[in-house]
Amino acid sequence: IQWLQASPRTSAEPKKPMNFLFFLVDDLGWADLGCYGSRFHETPNIDRLCVSGMQFNYGYAACPVCSPTRASILTGRHPVRLDITDWIPGQIPNRTKGEKFQQVKDRDSLGLSEVTLAESLGRQGYQTFFAGKWHLGSEGSWPTDHGFEINRGGWDVGSPRGGFFSPWQNPNLESGPTGESLTLRLGQETADFIEEHKDQPFLAYLSFYTVHGPIQTTQALWKKYRDKAEKAGLSKERFLFDRRLNVRQVQDCPIYAGMIELMDDAIGTVLHKLDVLGLEEKTIICFTSDNGGVSSGDAYATSNLPLRGGKGRQWEGGIREPFYLKAPGITQPGSTCATPVSGIDWYPTLLDLCGIESPKEQAVDGVSLVPLLKSKKIEDRPLYWHYPHYGNQ
Predict the structure, then answer these.
(1) Which residues neighbour 4 within 8 Å (Cβ) at sequence distance 6 or greater?
(2) For residue range 230-258, what is the model confidence (pLDDT) as tens digits?
(3) pLDDT at 316
């Protein structure tokens, strides 16, 4: 599935509020995309998207694990302020042997008093849609409780119950035909929402379950990347022991590569829909991940080199992310930015882009990146990470 570039729209057409399309990939590492240097994974749709706006070379997640980062993206607030500092519900306390410190007990849901991006845009008449992984609380704290009018697949869990191919077990997304890809289904659900709401300003928030474990792909894609890895020559040194666990040193996992290709195809489906509907020039597109790639623990699926570590570790490999934004009329195609930015900045940036002030009842820790999008500067500031927990990486 390829994204087709449309012709520019004429200036005589009346201006309407910009739409927002947000892609959030689960556990995608900084080095996992072609546009960020991967020579093994194939991501043609994302690569074309990446060169059409601004790529941030030092974009960071707010936390080395998922739930805190996800909450920060939606609120612009630091995980500590949200009292969500670990994935929900977090590591079982007695699982870590010989621990020296007592783990912090944090919240197991996003507070209902938090004003999310969906709520802020909804107040301005935006149609709001969520698809995929939520992982910010049980029923009563699902997407529809936090400003999203439509929810396709968001609920308690952080990995897909039943796997990535139908039938799956999800109370908010019925299974399709046997063997249907969950990843492609979520892309199609998002494209369908855009089709149905093309005449209204919208927020379409596609939060993939992939590339989180269990790592699964099709037989055909597994064979494609297995053959590619063998042709390139298999490395004899795949892992290096670092502190407590082995850490993957090379990208050559054919199952993981197949997952990434399916994710890229799903994104291509959504971008193609924008193109067909003539919405590409009035849609702001964001792309990022919630933490580093899984190089240790779980499936040891990828390498984040030259960055150290990965998901769950507070080295660069655990917190540095693909971080990309296209704002038509503001960002220059192919532009890059070397200023360090954080997931807490998405919320104030998107509100700024549509002229909405941050809610006065809520302190926001992030800053608007709009000056950077215009090749200007923002004030120097420190970025903080606080992970007072033992993890499974």
Answers:
(1) 272, 275, 276
(2) 999 988 888 999 988 999 999 999 999 99
(3) 96
Determine phi and psi for 250, rounding to 5 degrees: -145, 145
In angstroms and rounded to an integer, the radius of gyration of the C-alpha atoms of the chain is 20
Q: What is the DSSP letter of 285?
A: E
CB 215 within 8 A of CB 183: no
| pLDDT tens sequence across 43-91 | 999 999 999 999 999 999 999 999 999 999 999 999 999 999 999 998 7
If DSSP codes are grouped into helix, strand and coil, which group holds residue 96? coil
What's the rounded Cα separation, in Å, for the pair 167 and 165? Answer: 6
Mean of the pLDDT values across residues 378-390? 94
* Measured distance CA(34)–CA(47) in Å, rounded: 6
Read off the amino acid at residue 388.
P
Those residues whose C-beta lies under 8 Å from the C-beta of residue 279, and which sit 6 or more positions away, are 19, 194, 198
Cα-based distances in Å from 189 to 19, 126, 127, 205, 334: 17, 18, 15, 11, 29
The SS3 of residue 129 is strand
SS3 category, 355: coil
Return the SS3 of 165.
strand
317: which 2 tokens?
A: 């490999």
Pair of tokens at residue 84: 């969500």
Which of 2-11, 55-64, 125-134, 155-164 is predicted with the least confidence, judged by mean pLDDT?
A: 2-11
Is the bond into 93 cis (omega within 30 degrees of 0)?
no
| Average pLDDT of span 226-230 | 96
Distance between CA atoms of residues 149 and 142, nearest Å: 11
Highest mean pLDDT range out of 5-19, 65-79, 93-107?
65-79
Which residues of 105-256 form beta strands (DSSP E)? 127-132, 150-152, 202-207, 239-242, 245-248
**Cβ partners under 8 Å of residue 157, min gap 6:** 135
Distances (CA, A) of 82 to 77, 132, 361: 7, 22, 14
In the chain, the percentage of residues whose pLDDT exceeds 90 is 86
| Rounded-to-integer distance, Cα 164 and Cα 179, Å | 9
Closest by CA position to 108, among listed 125, 85, 76: 85
Tokens 């119950």 belong to which residue?
161
- What SS3 class is residue 371? helix
SS3 150: strand
